[in-house]
């Protein structure tokens, strides 16, 4: 197999020799038992649609649902219409609602686990009062529950703008939890993923915000299946999960420290709801099966080498990690093109994408390394890097 000439961030070219062995992670393994694991899945854009960056998303539904079947086939759950699906970054509520309906129906057909994001992104731009924001949450909650999917109450830009303090978060979330017919997952997404969420839970002081978050949970423990924490702070997540009421799970959303958080310690562990498990799905599932046998070291041996790739994809500005995720899906053969809704394929530099390819190849992520190398060469050539 010939080499691939990769541009470096500091200038110059790295000559990369792709690996020749294919990944060995095949569908149909034993169910995951020691951890509940969701992959936050991306959407596949329709590359032939005549769209602009600010027009409604044009989704390739066949390819999008095929990718979810790929994740389910490896035993993972799908977290649908979340941040990884470009919610609020190209995918509007109309598109998200259709995605939820289609994916939930597909989940029933294959007996796959699914949890879907509930937010307030149907509201028009501008200021909204607390009652309007809460009603928007209710509308989306009703749709998700009508499909039979589990609900994930996502952090809301509109609520962050409307809330005057912790009491407004307690009122809004308390009302929603009373309305929920089944236990939900609460999602705390940090401002590194979405700057509009700065000061969520009523304070920029994370200690104070944590107390409000815990107050919501402890007031309604029977309505909270778990919490998803995406703050990229392992110590804070560990401290938080140790304070959760009995029976309330912690789903790590930390794409920097996930191996240690999922492996856990003598006091407990985190389950997972992760964007990085979109490209890592088969490998992650195999690692959890190893953990199911009690082999924590074997689990870490499989998953630890992927952290460098994840940290690279999620480097600041973190919200653009989706570009690398979609690149890897294309290189791995899960879709026929490297195009994203909203034109976000341009959100990362060519050296950034080249390094993502190099790291992914290094951990054996590609089912067909020759295909990945060929596609990477074509991308580089189009951008002026001769091969």
Computed CA radius of gyration, to the nearest angstrom: 20 Å
The coarse silhouette is globular
What is the ordering of alpha helices and beta strands?
Answer: EEEHEHEHEHHEHEHEHEHHHHHH
What's the pLDDT, averaged over the residues?
Answer: 96
Gist of the model:
With 387 residues, the protein is an alpha/beta fold. Helices cover 42% and strands 12% of the residues. α7 links the parallel β8 (224-230) and β9 (249-252).
Structural account:
The longest helix has 18 residues, at 93-110. Helix 9 (281-292) runs antiparallel to helix 10, helix 12 (321-331) packs across helix 13 (350-362) and helix 13 (350-362) packs antiparallel against helix 14. It contains 14 helices and ten strands. It is an alpha/beta fold. Helices cover 42% and strands 12% of the residues. An eight-stranded parallel beta barrel has the order 3-4-5-6-7-8-9-10, surrounded by four helices. The protein has a two-stranded antiparallel sheet with strand order 1-2. The protein has helices spanning 61-73, 93-110, 130-146, 157-162, 166-179, 206-219, 234-241, 258-263, 281-292, 296-303, 307-313, 321-331, 350-362, 369-382; strands at residues 4-7, 13-16, 37-40, 77-80, 114-118, 150-153, 184-189, 224-230, 249-252, 271-274. The mean pLDDT is 96. Helix 3 (130-146) links the parallel strand 5 and strand 6.
């Amino acid at each position: 197999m010939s080499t691939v000439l990769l541009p470096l961030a500091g200038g110059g070219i790295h000559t990369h020799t792709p690996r020749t062995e294919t990944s060995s992670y095949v569908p149909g393994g034993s169910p995951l038992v020691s951890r509940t694991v969701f992959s936050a899945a991306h959407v596949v854009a329709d590359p032939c649609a005549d769209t602009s960056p600010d027009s409604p998303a044009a989704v390739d539904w066949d390819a999008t649902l095929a990718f979810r079947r790929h994740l389910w086939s490896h035993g993972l759950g799908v977290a649908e219409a979340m941040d990884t699906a470009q919610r609020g970054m190209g995918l509007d509520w109309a598109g998200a609602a259709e995605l939820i309906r289609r994916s939930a129906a597909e989940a029933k057909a294959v007996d796959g686990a699914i949890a879907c994001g509930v937010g307030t992104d149907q509201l028009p731009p501008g200021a909204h009062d607390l009652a309007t924001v809460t009603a928007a949450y209710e509308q989306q909650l009703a749709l998700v529950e009508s499909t039979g999917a589990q609900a994930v109450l996502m952090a809301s830009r509109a609520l962050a703008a409307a809330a005057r303090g912790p009491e407004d978060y307690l009122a809004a979330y308390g009302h929603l939890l009373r309305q929920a017919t089944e236990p939900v997952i609460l999602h705390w997404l940090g401002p590194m993923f979405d700057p509009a969420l700065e000061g969520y839970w009523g304070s920029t002081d994370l200690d104070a915000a944590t107390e409000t978050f815990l107050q919501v949970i402890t007031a309604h423990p029977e309505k909270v299946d778990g919490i998803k924490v995406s703050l990229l702070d392992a110590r804070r997540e560990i401290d938080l999960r140790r304070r959760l009421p009995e029976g309330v799970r912690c789903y790590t959303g930390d794409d920097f420290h996930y191996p240690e958080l999922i492996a856990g310690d003598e006091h407990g562990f985190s389950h997972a709801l992760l964007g990085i498990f979109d490209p890592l799905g088969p490998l992650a599932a195999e690692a959890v099966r190893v953990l199911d046998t009690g082999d924590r070291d074997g689990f870490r041996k499989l998953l630890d080498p992927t952290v460098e790739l994840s940290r690279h994809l999620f480097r600041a500005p973190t919200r653009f990690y989706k570009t690398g995720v979609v690149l890897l899906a294309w290189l791995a053969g899960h879709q026929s093109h490297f195009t994203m809704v909203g034109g976000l394929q341009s959100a990362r530099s060519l050296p950034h994408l080249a390094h993502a390819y190099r790291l992914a190849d290094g951990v054996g992520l590609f089912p067909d390394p020759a295909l990945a190398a060929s596609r990477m060469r074509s991308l580089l050539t189009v951008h002026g890097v001769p091969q």
